[in-house]
């Protein structure tokens, strides 16, 4: 497409929507040299009537997600540099204050302060007096403390949109308002342009930055856009005496009262109040009135005072001075929610050249635009954005029923204290493995991931834990945890356990070009004889880790790939020539991991094939039968024990489980869940992609250099790795730590200090039951084993020590038997 337009010509981009996201994207694209950018907007500029047109613009950067925090940080920096026509910056760093009125919230603010420290956001938990100094209108009897972030504040969304529009226009971008996109044209699976009420616009790339109209634009392109527009109430009070004569729009920090789902900002002599406390009020994006037909603007619905009444009482309780005021004006403003609260970014798998920049807050707008512009112009964003990747939702998770249920839930829970393992309640169960009935009988405590019901531990194993001495846990780390997990870990190390590996993503790569594709797309040498399994990495062009894979060569032209995120399929599909076929076979198949020193005693009698160490060595695969069930057996284990992953089709899964279960009774087999699984892999030092390493890290930094074969010929990322190696030692490493106090635990995302100074953050962590202490992996500068560090967990310091890897079984005696 691009080539047809001649060498050097800038690709033609059409951006749908001139809200803050569309304007920022045009700016970021043109800043990177793409000049043929047309932004089409159905409403009138400068305030076209989408969510941006009335956003109160509060920016709190700290988020559980590092990616969102970095996007917010960039937005704040950029808007701080931009000037509005009145000469003032587009960001006003009045600071942020989140107050606690309950002990649970106060504890959570300490956790949040840890997140802020991990992601490099300045902030501190302050006492009630300091909260009152920052916000004198607060009721002194109500506030237990607060989290103060001096760099947060107010984004001026419309001036910021305008400033970015102007700089984009100066570099050649066109902005056409009162132009409604009505269709997306495509040929051969690629976009070729858009149709509007003012004519057609050819394009090589179309970006939907249409805010809550995203599903409407998506439908034109045949792409699901899993977001739900919801109305959210915002009101402004009548003037307050206490603010009379205020010279500036705002001087006090933006304020959150999350125990009551409220936030506040000043509007010179008034207070603006936003509420998430009311019922979810979904809006159908297909029937939203057009600009000229809307009473105010399309994103603004009439204020429903009765919905606001409880919030008003809560606001008055927090800020008693409000009693002398009332709601002067208010509205129900519409914006987007997704099933997991994260934006929807990236290029569609079905329609190439069709990109989404949807469900983005003002807070993250410039950061999102930068990431997407990098992605479009350079092929990758410099930030790890996998948590925002639109491919993360599978078919069932894109169904309207699912999107409505989950997205409304996100609205309700937006300010709730949510444990990192907490699964949403509905709609469940959604995806289940063939073993689900047996797991339920064993009292599985199911958590959910990727729509799958995943046993975390089994209550049936709780009695086994009675003989174990386990240190007591704090309430937070004891949530979604059970001593049964310790018993399951122990049984895996001492006897044998069955693990449901069904949710592990499986891709089938077949055809004459299969080997060539995997050789070019991944780092290890997979040109080995059928029967070999290879641990290999997917890198991007900059050498960042997109995934770690196992590639099992089942036949000359047939590989089975053990993968991580849905994006892995996209990466391979993009790189695949016509003579390769790639299918995601996860849904129709299943897998049991049988691991432990007695695994061979259990499995060998069930098959006529030789499963001895000589018969099927480590990282080897073969087809065999377990009883009646044809299986593909792969001798590898993420838990560091002898055993196999046994794959079969979904219809035979239950039979496979039952056969193994029955045969295992005399060996004391247990069913074991992810809680034990995670503990065991941490002891063994096996990294979890997405948590321990991402596209922001190279294999050498992540300790995965052993999976890179520089001598095998060219592969994606090789050049970049060479260039980086020439620059010397990596400045940071994924480092194993053990906690000094045997009773201490951390869970991940906590800040790590070396010599008392912030030095990095914990990626994943868990109690190592074999080691008898907590293991934590962390990104840190290179440190010698034995170096003392400390981690901060809920505001408390806990001592830890840099450990030598692997922590468990360095001689491999548990595996090579
Ligand atoms: P929009 O601003 O909605 O822009 C999309 C544009 O696409 C619209 O202008 C629309 O007209 C155009 N469009 C749609 N369809 C077509 C078509 N077919 N053809 C041409 N153009 C089309 N965020 C924060 O970070 N902090 C806050 O404090 C905050 N408070 C909020 C309070 C309220 C009451 C509301 C409603 C939202 C709030 N938000 C806040 C969220 C924030 O406003 C939005 O997330 C953000 O403005 C979305 O920007 P956007 O550019 O993606 O979408
Ligand atoms: N099983 C299968 N595929 C997978 C995983 C799995 N793909 C995704 C993810 N999990 C990959 N992660 C790992 C991590 C470590 C190992 C296997 C998969 C592993 N590593 C050994 C080591 O580091 O010593 C062996 C490496 C080697 O010999 O090259 O076993 O769980 N099917």
From TrEMBL:
Span of domain Aminomethyltransferase C-terminal: 732-809
Q: Where is the FAD dependent oxidoreductase central domain?
A: 378-433
Q: Which residues form a coiled coil?
A: none
Gene3D superfamilies on file: Aminomethyltransferase beta-barrel domains, D-Amino Acid Oxidase, subunit A, domain 2, FAD/NAD(P)-binding domain, Probable tRNA modification gtpase trme, domain 1
Q: Which PROSITE patterns match?
A: PROKAR_LIPOPROTEIN
User: Cross-referenced InterPro entries, in alphabetical order?
Assistant: FAD-dep_OxRdtase, FAD/NAD-bd_sf, FAO_M, GcvT/YgfZ/DmdA, GcvT/YgfZ_C, GcvT_C, GCVT_N, TrmE/GcvT-like
Pfam families assigned: DAO, FAO_M, GCV_T, GCV_T_C
> Domain named GCVT N-terminal: which ranges?
435-712
Q: Which residues form the FAD dependent oxidoreductase domain?
A: 12-375
What family is reported?
Belongs to the GcvT family.
Which PANTHER family does the record cross-reference, listed alphabetically? AMINOMETHYLTRANSFERASE, AMINOMETHYLTRANSFERASE, MITOCHONDRIAL
Q: What is this protein called?
A: FAD-dependent oxidoreductase
- State the species of origin: Streptomyces albidochromogenes
């Amino acid at each position: 497409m691009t080539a047809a337009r001649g060498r050097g010509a800038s690709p033609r981009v059409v951006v749908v929507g001139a809200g803050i996201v569309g304007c920022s994207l045009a700016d970021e694209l043109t800043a990177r040299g793409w000049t043929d950018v047309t932004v089409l907007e159905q409403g009138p500029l400068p305030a076209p009537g989408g969510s941006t047109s009335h956003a109160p613009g509060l920016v709190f950067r700290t988020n559980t997600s590092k990616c969102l925090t970095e996007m917010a940080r960039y937005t704040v920096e950029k808007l701080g540099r931009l000037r509005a026509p009145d000469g003032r910056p587009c960001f006003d760093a009045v600071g942020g204050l989140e107050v606690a009125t309950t002990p649970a919230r106060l504890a959570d603010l300490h956790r949040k302060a840890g997140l802020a420290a991990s992601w490099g956001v300045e902030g501190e938990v302050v006492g009630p007096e300091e909260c009152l100094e920052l916000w004198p209108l607060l009721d002194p009897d109500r506030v237990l403390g607060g989290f103060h972030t001096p760099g947060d504040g107010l984004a001026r969304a419309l001036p910021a949109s305008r400033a970015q529009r102007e700089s984009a226009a100066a570099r050649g971008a066109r902005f056409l308002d009162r132009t409604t996109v009505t269709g997306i044209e495509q040929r051969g699976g690629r976009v070729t342009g858009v149709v509007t009420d003012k004519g057609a616009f050819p394009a090589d790339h179309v970006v939907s930055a249409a805010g809550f109209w995203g599903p409407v634009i998506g439908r034109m392109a045949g792409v699901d856009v899993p977001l739900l527009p919801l109305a959210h109430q915002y009101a402004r009070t009548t003037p307050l005496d206490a603010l009379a004569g205020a010279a500036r729009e705002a001087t006090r920090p933006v304020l959150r009262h999350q125990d009551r789902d409220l936030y506040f900002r000043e509007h010179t002599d008034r207070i603006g109040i936003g509420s998430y406390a009311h019922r979810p009020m979904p809006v159908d994006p297909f029937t939203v009135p057009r600009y000229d037909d809307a009473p105010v603007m399309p994103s603004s619905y009439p204020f429903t005072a009765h919905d606001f009444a409880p919030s008003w009482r809560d606001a008055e309780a927090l800020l008693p001075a409000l009693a002398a005021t009332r709601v002067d004006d208010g509205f129900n403003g519409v914006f987007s929610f997704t099933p997991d609260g994260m934006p929807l970014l990236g290029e569609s798998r079905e329609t190439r050249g069709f990109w989404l920049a949807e469900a983005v807050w003002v807070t993250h707008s410039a950061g999102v635009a930068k990431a997407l512009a990098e992605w479009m112009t350079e092929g990758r964003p410099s930030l790890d954005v996998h948590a925002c990747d639109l491919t993360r939702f599978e078919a069932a998770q894109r169904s309207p029923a699912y999107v409505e249920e989950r997205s409304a839930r996100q609205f309700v829970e937006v300010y709730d204290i949510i444990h990192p393992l907490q699964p949403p309640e509905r709609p469940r169960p959604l995806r289940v493995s063939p073993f689900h009935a047996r797991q339920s009988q064993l009292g599985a405590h199911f958590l959910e991931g990727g729509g799958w019901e995943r046993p975390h531990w089994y209550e049936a194993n709780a009695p086994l834990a009675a003989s174990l001495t386990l240190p007591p846990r704090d309430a937070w780390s004891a949530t979604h945890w059970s001593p049964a997990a310790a018993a399951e870990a122990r049984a895996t190390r001492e006897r044998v356990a069955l693990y449901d590996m069904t949710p592990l993503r499986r891709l089938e790569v077949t055809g004459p070009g299969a080997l060539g594709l995997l050789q070019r797309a991944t780092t290890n040498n997979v040109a080995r004889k059928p029967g070999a399994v290879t641990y290999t990495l997917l890198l991007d062009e900059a050498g960042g880790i997109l995934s770690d894979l196992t590639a099992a060569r089942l036949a000359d032209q047939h590989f089975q790939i053990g993968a991580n995120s849905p994006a892995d399929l996209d990466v391979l599909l993009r790189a695949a020539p016509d003579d390769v076929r790639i299918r995601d076979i996860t849904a129709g198949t299943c897998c049991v991991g049988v691991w432990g020193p007695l695994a061979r005693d259990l499995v060998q009698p069930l098959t006529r094939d030789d499963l001895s160490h000589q018969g099927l060595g480590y990282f080897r695969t073969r087809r065999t039968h377990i009883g009646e069930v044809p299986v593909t057996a792969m001798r590898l284990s993420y838990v560091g024990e002898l055993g196999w992953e046994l794959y079969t089709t979904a219809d035979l899964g239950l039979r496979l489980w039952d056969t193994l279960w029955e045969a295992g009774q005399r060996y004391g087999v247990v069913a074991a869940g992810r809680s034990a699984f995670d503990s065991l892999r941490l002891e063994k030092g096996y990294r979890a992609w997405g948590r321990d390493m991402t596209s922001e890290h190279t294999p050498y930094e992540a300790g995965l250099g052993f999976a890179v074969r520089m001598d095998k010929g060219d592969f994606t990322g090789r050049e970049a790795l060479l260039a980086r190696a020439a620059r010397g030692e990596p400045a940071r490493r994924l480092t194993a730590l053990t906690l000094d106090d045997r009773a201490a635990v951390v869970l991940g995302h906590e800040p790590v200090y070396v010599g008392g100074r912030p030095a990095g953050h914990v990626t994943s962590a868990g109690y190592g039951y074999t080691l008898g202490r907590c293991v934590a992996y962390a990104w840190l500068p290179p440190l010698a084993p034995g170096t003392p560090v400390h981690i901060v967990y809920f505001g408390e310091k806990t001592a830890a020590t840099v450990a030598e890897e692997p922590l468990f079984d360095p001689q491999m005696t548990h595996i090579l038997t």
